[in-house]
Design goal:
CATH architecture of the largest domain: 2-Layer Sandwich
Distance between the termini: 83 Å
Number of strands: 17
Structural class: alpha+beta
Organism: Lacticaseibacillus thailandensis DSM 22698 = JCM 13996
Radius of gyration: 25 Å
GO molecular function: ATP binding; ATP-dependent peptidase activity; serine-type endopeptidase activity
CATH class of the largest domain: Alpha Beta
Transmembrane segments: 12-29
Protein name: Pdz domain-containing protein
Number of helices: 10
Strand order of the largest sheet: 4-1-3-13-16-17
Domain PDZ: 126-193
Length: 352
């Protein structure tokens, strides 16, 4: 082989390697961005199981999700440009200061909490026995000066303080604040199902200047109802399935035919007294619901109060945003504003 041919061959190989690297980078190299796109419209009855009951009525309730892809490659970002209602976020915009594992743990907590609250709201609406039992406090995040860093993780459950169990998060907070800064307390907690103990010194919390352990927390509860209700959403996370969980539970418990053969979609958080709360990504959920053939879509109708405006200057009423999305895609699906589970039930009764 001549010297010129060898040089040409080396040049061809070098060019091929460069092209391969460029293509690989375009296809696979993460950018640090995340893409949110319309997700699924899953049949809710497969998640909600009421003892001795089955959802035998025609039609279905649909649990709406938003799919998150990331860290996204340049190819995914280009693909997202052509997807309906796609949204590109930085990690901070999507997860705040949480790590990926902490964010995942929070999303799983949110949907478990939504399921519990949905059961309570549905059972109360159906006038059936239901009670809430405190199981400890759920660790939502750890402050930078928390003495529990390195011991406790987001998603762990604190069950005792100095050997004492309390019914609610408020009880744990008060027990800790009875101590002084620098005083030691023994914390009992569960991590991945295992009970553990740690003794730490209390620190002065920056916001309240009171003694504390430096975590943000919320109640971890167990719901007991008659009949027994079990909700398992699998890998789905987030708080926005509350309303649709409650509707599915209510229909199974009462046996009422509220759907009349229709596909009913919707979204919104739920409180134990049935109040519906605002959620994110509703435009994507409207698109997924319309694609699934839904006839009705329930959207939280929470007005922009001064408090909301102060906390979020860009706040847009979910119902208004859902209407805009429906108009944009030209769907005949009816967007129904709701502020409570009772309103949703009443609408389905009056509009068969």
């Amino acid at each position: 082989m001549s010297k010129q041919r060898q040089q040409r061959r080396r040049l061809v190989i070098a060019v091929a390697v460069v092209i391969t690297l460029v293509v690989a980078t375009f296809l696979f190299m993460p950018t640090g961005k995340y893409v949110e796109v319309p997700g699924s419209a899953s049949v809710t009855s497969k998640f909600v199981h009421v003892a001795g009951k089955r959802d035998r009525q025609r039609g279905s309730y649909r649990l709406m999700t938003v799919s998150v892809i990331g860290p996204a490659s340049p190819a995914v970002l280009l693909w997202a440009h052509w997807q309906p209602f796609a949204e590109v976020d930085s990690k901070a915009e999507l997860m705040g200061s949480a790590t990926t594992s902490e964010y995942t743990a929070l999303q799983r907590y949110y949907i478990k909490s939504a399921a519990n609250d949905a059961v309570v709201a549905a059972m109360r609406a159906a006038h059936r026995p239901v009670s809430i039992h405190g199981q400890g406090i759920y660790v939502m995040s750890l402050l930078s000066n928390s003495p529990l860093r390195g011991h406790i993780h987001v998603g762990d459950i604190i069950t005792r303080v100095d050997g004492q169990r309390y019914a609610r998060a408020q009880g744990y907070t008060r027990a800790i604040q009875r101590h002084r800064v620098g005083q030691r307390v023994r914390i009992t907690y569960t991590h991945r199902g295992r009970t553990r103990h740690v003794t730490v010194k209390l620190v002065r919390l920056r916001q309240t200047h009171r003694p504390g352990i430096g975590i943000t927390l919320t109640d971890h509860t167990r719901v007991v109802s008659q009949p027994r209700v079990r909700i398992n959403a699998g890998q789905i996370g987030g708080p926005s399935a509350g309303l649709i969980f409650a509707l599915e539970t209510y229909q199974q418990v009462t046996g009422q035919n509220l759907r009349h053969g229709r596909i009913i979609a919707g979204t919104g958080t739920i409180s134990t007294n049935g109040r519906v709360g605002a959620i994110g990504g509703i435009d994507k959920k409207v698109y997924a619901a319309a694609k699934a053939g839904a006839r009705v879509f329930f959207a939280p109708n929470i007005p922009a109060t001064k408090t909301l405006r102060r906390e979020d200057p860009d706040y847009v009423n979910n119902y208004v945003e859902a209407q805009r999305a429906a108009k944009k895609i030209g769907t005949h699906m009816r967007i129904v504003p709701v502020r409570s589970l009772q309103q949703a039930i009443r609408y389905l009764r009056m509009h068969p």
